[in-house]
Amino acid sequence: MTERTGRINVGVVGVGNCVSSLVQGVRFYADAPDDAPGLTRPVCAGYAVRDIVFTAAFDVDAGKIGKDLSQALWAEPNNASRFADVPHLGVPVDDGVLADGVGAGTAPHIAASGRASVDDVARRLSETGTRVLVNFLPTGSQSATEAYAEAALRAGCAFVNCMPARLAREPRWARAFADARLPLVGDDLKSQFGSTLVHHALLDALAANGVRVRDTYQLNNGGNMDFLNLRDPERMRGKKETKARGMGAGAGAPRVHVGAEYVPFLADRKVAYIRVEAQAFGGTPVEIDLRMCVEDSPSAAGNVLDAVRYAQAALDDGYGGVLAEASAALMKAPTD
């Protein structure tokens, strides 16, 4: 593919572990060789990783607001791995929209502000020349996600929804972005190599070979704020829905269970346990148990690099609405 010229001005919503890994990743891969481990596409949609520039950041945690993005990445309660040195970026973290962005489980761990309005966010996006806004709000933040989507529309930005909030799946939002000729990628980011991908691949392999899945579960354990947030049953419900979609709804299994547990000492590590019970030739039983451990946030960052590059390319080409191909490749729940 012919490389495009110019840079991609990216804004981020929610300066947590995923944003920490994303910003570090841009630094790490900016001058890395094409065969560097962990990078699926050195050039995606005509853009290289080094073309990505961070221009705006929003959070509601008073401990991060006002700090340069390069410093806010390491502010508590963030606990992502450090794998790259990030210089001063000249991008202050601005106060964001609170709405439902802080759940009961995480509220004691941050000093919430969130006094900004949709107009405030839109104005900041315009002032900074941001073209692609990436949403990393906690699971369950439907109203807050919609507020930032509206700000993106007003500021003329593409929107990448990395969380389970319903946006690309909602006809009114898909139509709004199409009418504005602005790209929308969503919903709920797949990890580059995570438990959902492995679970889906395992179920597909069984189905392709005539094995009938009866029951399956996926139990995820981690010690970051995402897992703490998921202790709220209401917020966990949305995650279960997109997880089940991402694994192909259990390949037709009548009983599918998805669970998550907050284990503080794991920090940003995610330990996943997958079990499958099935029937093979002659109705004989098949049982599979699998354990995998990954650093949670870096596993997500690689696909975000692709999503923002697809979004910018669509902006260049004047295409608006849901980017169906990119969403299907990078998101757990691109459609209903």
Please, could you describe this protein's structure?
α1 packs across α9 and α3 (118-128) crosses α4 (142-155). A seven-stranded parallel β-sheet has the order 5-4-1-6-7-8-13, with helices on both faces. The protein has helices at 17-29, 69-72, 118-128, 142-155, 171-179, 195-208, 225-229, 233-246, 296-316, 324-330; strands spanning 8-13, 43-44, 47-48, 52-59, 93-95, 132-135, 158-161, 183-185, 212-222, 255-262, 269-279, 285-295, 321-322. The chain folds into two domains: 8-190 and 298-330, Rossmann fold (3-Layer(aba) Sandwich); 195-296, Dihydrodipicolinate Reductase, domain 2 (2-Layer Sandwich), CATH 3.30.360. The longest helix is centred in the C-terminal third of the chain and has 21 residues, at 296-316. The radius of gyration is 20 Å and the shape is globular. By secondary structure, the protein is α/β, with parallel strands linked by helices.
